[in-house]
Write a structure and sequence with these properties.
With about 750 residues, this protein is of the alpha/beta class. It has four domains: about 15-185, Rossmann fold; about 200-275, 6-phosphogluconate dehydrogenase C-terminal like domain (6-phosphogluconate dehydrogenase C-terminal fold, Orthogonal Bundle), CATH 1.10.3660; about 315-325 and about 545-740, Alpha-beta prism (UDP-n-acetylglucosamine1-carboxyvinyl-transferase, Chain), CATH 3.65.10; about 335-540, Enolpyruvate transferase domain (UDP-n-acetylglucosamine1-carboxyvinyl-transferase, Chain). The protein is about 40% helix and about 20% strand. A six-stranded parallel β-sheet has the order 3-2-1-4-5-6. It has a four-stranded mixed β-sheet with strand order 30-31-10-32. Helix 7 packs across helix 11 and helix 21 (about 630-635) runs parallel beside helix 22 (about 655-665). The chain binds shikimate-3-phosphate. Shikimate-3-phosphate (S3P) binds near residues 333, 483, 505 and 626. It catalyses: 3-phosphoshikimate + phosphoenolpyruvate = 5-O-(1-carboxyvinyl)-3-phosphoshikimate + phosphate; prephenate + NAD(+) = 3-(4-hydroxyphenyl)pyruvate + CO2 + NADH.
Length: about 750
Amino acid sequence: MVDVTVEKAEPVIDRLVVVGLGLIGGSFAKGLRESGLCREVVGVDLDPQSRKLAVELGVVDRCEDDLAKACVGADVIQLAVPILAMEKLLAKLAQLELGQAVLTDVGSAKGNVVRAAREAFGSRLPNFVPGHPIAGSEQSGVEASNAELFRRHKVILTPLAETDPAALARVDSLWRALGADVEHMQVERHDEVLAATSHLPHLLAFGLVDSLAKRNENLDIFRYAAGGFRDFTRIAGSDPVMWHDIFLANREAVLRTLDTFRSDLDALRDAVDAGDGHQLLGVFTRARVAREHFSKILARRAYVDAMNSNDLIFLANPGGRLSGRIRVPGDKSISHRSIMLGSLAEGTTEVEGFLEGEDALATLQAFRDMGVVIEGPHHGRVTIHGVGLNGLKPPPGPIYLGNSGTSMRLLSGLLAAQSFDTVLTGDASLSKRPMNRVANPLREMGAVIETAAEGRPPMTIRGGHPLKALNYTLPMASAQVKSCLLLAGLYAEGKTTVTEPAPTRDHTERMLRGFGYPVTVEGATASLESGHKLTATSIEVPADISSAAFFLVAASIAEGSELLLEHVGINPTRTGVIDILRLMGGDITLENQREVGGEPVADLRVRGAKLKGIEIPEALVPLAIDEFPVLFVAAACAEGRTVLRGAEELRVKESDRIQVMADGLLTLGVKCEPTPDGIIIEGGPIGGGEVHGHGDHRIAMAFSVASLRASAPIRIHDCANVATSFPNFLALCAEVGIRVAEEGKS
Ligand code: S3P
């Protein structure tokens, strides 16, 4: 039989032979027997009792005690004996006439099995597919056989260079038929990964329990050993013989990972001995985040399994009116910068109001990866133990920045000046965004940077290249490019000067001064010189006007609304959205204006208003650059025509915001026409329909707001990235009266 497609439950294999009827072998046999994919399942086991039970329990069709007899006419032979018995078994099999039978195994270590197979069969093993199911149970023996044991568990296959692809495909398809997630890996990599993630933890658990049990006072210790001890040592209840086998089989990889761990443990011991709380905090905060990340990976997997896709859909029901008072989350731009400058400062910086969205968290994690100890975030509070301008350490691997263009562009500036290499990567959206706008001027400063084709990420930044100051005129109005060059300028020899074609957000300049670093701003030109230092400070992050913008538009377009948005940052380089809405007839007043940590702040009161179409003044474009998706919704609700020009930058944001918004608005029946650098929108009725967020947070939120004036529900696909900038968006919508929720939840 050669057919390996398994959708249909017709036999694709004549004879499956399973050697070793323990929990794993029995479960494999039982699952495949029940699937109907094998005409016959034959079991082999030394133990007569197991052979008898296997037939009685329906695990196999028949059993043999003689290996040679069992293997006659076999298509696939699964070796499920204890790992140390594998060598002998392979030697016996090599004496038999196996024809084209595919051999595979379930051993927890792969290097030793492959070695034994080569010794037995010679160097060429085209029909051997080494494998390892990562599944088990505290029960053992054929009586514990469970056809569902491998469902949603990983199975790692480690094909050899000469493994026949058809043999691999056949074994792969059998595991998939049992519901397993199959992955392929190199033998050495498998053994290393398993040594670290499974074998080392078992060694530690066995070792800890034994060490405590040996002490005289053990009875007393165990009486008090609750949560921590119990959680940590659960796996010390595993089968000692099996584990003894595994450590002997995977000796080299276990020793490598154990030695690394021993030196890390010694460092922890030294930190405790020296009373070095900073070192302990560093290890514990990093470990905690890593553990949370791991839980998220597991959770997401469960979600993907259940939904078979990761499309988060928002369902926005039509109508509604807004009321109440809310505080939207902290400013994204300021949150990024607080981590960057706090990390490079001398001393401890306290941040309040930090945005706990994925973008700002990506920046936070990047600095943790570079050795900065950062506590939190906890309810918006972050404590950063600055390392000084020259205190960053090489990260352990590439720095993953998710969806965040701000993280990548700003970081590239300061990483260009470090002594070590870094690689910056991101998600699918970020991987399409242009990075030459920062890479080119940085190269002029002496930086060595490689990018993918057309200046896209990943960015590889080579360390150890001293920077020279640059006098640069930005070709586009971009705060990210300006900030990148100023951050590089902190390290460059001489005076770095950046001139912008139009005013852009100036949080970097303001915050540098807040950290005591001299920056001069004259008209459109900002400059600084290296040689000074950043001194830790306290930062209060105001609410993000870019997040408030969704509610400014929402309350404006929903008749009878009145909403108060508290503590919003109103830095004049960010208030274009207020100016544009006012020009359209919006009713927005600023109350309780004040300054907090160098940034102006106010409470914004917004009431429903009759909006009219306008020609948006081009000077306002950079001051409202992130707010256009929702401003387009305002324009769709306004009377008459709105025209936007000079906004080509919108085409290179998290999505092509001109095209994507035009597509969605057209779907909803709004008349509009995208132009190369803007859009023309005719106000009018809005219908319902299916639109796409394209993984762009602001698109998803803008269409949620449009529902207030829609005549039917709007289904918005691909909304997961709302969490990058506005994690509690749906909760705040529900609080003020916008009827949008995750589909399936009200
Ligand atoms: C940002 C600058 C803007 C903005 C982005 C944040 C910043 O990008 O769109 O959301 O924090 O400096 P550009 O500099 O590309 O315009």
